[in-house]
Structure formats: C-alpha cells, structure tokens
Description:
Family: Belongs to the ABC transporter superfamily.
Domain ABC transporter: 4-227
Oligomer: single chain
Keywords: ATP-binding, Cell membrane, Membrane, Nucleotide-binding, Transport
Strand order of the largest sheet: 6-7-8-3-9-10
Radius of gyration: 17 Å
Protein name: ABC transporter
Distance between the termini: 27 Å
Shape: globular
Number of helices: 6
Strand content: 25-35%
GO molecular function: ATP binding; ATP hydrolysis activity
Helix content: 25-40%
Bound molecules: adenosine-5'-diphosphate
Structural class: alpha/beta
Order of helices and strands: EEEHEEEHHHEHEHEE
Largest sheet: 6 strands, mixed
Amino acid sequence: ECLISLRGLGKTYITPTGQVRALDGLDLDIADGEFVSIVGPSGCGKSTLLRMLAGLDPYEEGEMRMQGHPIQGPSRDVGVVFQAANLLPWLTVRQNVELPLRVGGRHANDGPSVDTLLDMTGLGDFGQRYPYELSGGMQQRAGICRALARNPRTLLMDEPFGALDALTRERMNLELQRIWQTNGKTVILITHSIAEAIFLADRVIVMSPRPGRILRDLHVDIPRPRT
Length: 227
Ligand code: ADP
Ligand code: ADP
C-alpha cells in the first residue's frame, strides 16, 4: 500500500545570483509503515524534499500525494523534527509537547498520552522543567515527543540528531527505532550518516546533487538489531 506518492516533483529557487534547481523530476513511492533514510551530499535537495512533504514549501512542478490526496499544506497526520528542537523557551517541556494538541486537537485513534511519550523518552521527571534546564539530547527528545503528540501516521525528520554527541546520538537511534517498532509509523529520516541510515531503515535513498534526483534506491535486507 502506497502512503506517499511523488511524481515528477521539481523545485527551483530564485536567488539574487540566479536560479537553483533543487529538485528535478523526482519520482518516489513510500509504503505505509516503511522506514526510509535519505542520504546524499550537501545541497542535493534533501531538506527541500522533506519540507515539501511536510507541506511547508509550496511546489509548482509535479505531483505529491499522501493517502491519495494532494499535499497542500501542513497535515495533522504528519510530525516533523528538525535539527534544532525549537522548543518555546517560555513554556515547560510538558507544555511544549502539548502544544500541537492545543492547536489541533487529538486524533480519533489516540496514540500514547503525553505522559507516556515523556516516560518513553526518559523525560518523565522533566515535564515541569524549562528547555534551558535540559541537555541538548533531552531537548531533542522533547522535540520528538512534540512531533508524536498528535499521533501522526508519518514522522519526517531532518538531521534530528546532527547536533548531538556520538553517544547521545546512538541512544537516540535506539529510541527512534523503538518508537517506530512499537507505533507502526512511517518514518522518513534525513541523515549525513550512512551507518545511521542503514542501521535504522528498511530502505536507503541516495540523492544526487546534479540536480536533485534519486541516484540509488536501496532496500536494506539485514536483520534488525533487537532493542
Ligand atoms: P540538502 O538538504 O541536501 O543539503 P537543500 O534542499 O537544503 O539540500 O538545498 C538544495 C539546493 O537548493 C541547494 O543548492 C541550496 O543552496 C538551494 N536552496 C535550498 N533552500 C533554498 C532557499 N530557501 N533559497 C535559495 N536556495 C535554496
Ligand atoms: P542526553 O543528551 O542523551 O540527555 P546527557 O549525557 O546530556 O545525555 O544526559 C544524560 C542524563 O543525565 C539525562 O538523561 C538526564 O537524566 C541527566 N541530565 C542531563 N542533563 C541534565 C539536566 N540539565 N538536568 C537534569 N538532569 C540532566
């Protein structure tokens, strides 16, 4: 079953120094429940692709569908995590995680409660704290909780662990794997680390920068480590 379907997706940025072709005729199908990593050199269009999937970037060329419907803007069924957690500093961790629920309400098929999310990511005792009181890894975990709060079917992540040290990053990988395994979500993860991509994903998409296209689409067929 195809959850996400892209056909001939293109994107050109107009800059003061000329035009930049960021994506060029991209075709991609992603099945429900798949874990897809996207790798490729800097500037190959990974972030552009993710922003477009998240409905954050307008698109002019091609077709983007999610569950058969054109993607026309942010969806409550999609959670997004960027490199920086971007927590609101004047709200507590819990209030940050609850924010999407206040804005958009919960789904009919409720997922884990905010408490469960915080516990699951080791933040159970930190809900009343403010972001500046937490380590970078903990803030990023709070950002992931926030992205999961509305129980989205799809989780989009752009270098979510890029700013973390190696050990924390490894822990976050296990965390993410657990979330994916226990919640049956579709995950699309941009990463600079091929090791991370292969460790986590069913499928690794390699993009090429000249211009934003898919160079390789690899299925990872190695036993998954148990967590
Ligand atoms: P990646 O995430 O793989 O590094 P990006 O999607 O960020 O690639 O960028 C793809 C290309 O589009 C790059 O050449 C980048 O400089 C350009 N680009 C990205 N965002 C913008 C923007 N807002 N304005 C102008 N050019 C951009
Ligand atoms: P991570 O970035 O994965 O949280 P750290 O080494 O920064 O890794 O923290 C490890 C653990 O130490 C955390 O899970 C938390 O229990 C505790 N810790 C770290 N920073 C703080 C803090 N500012 N306040 C309270 N506990 C903290």
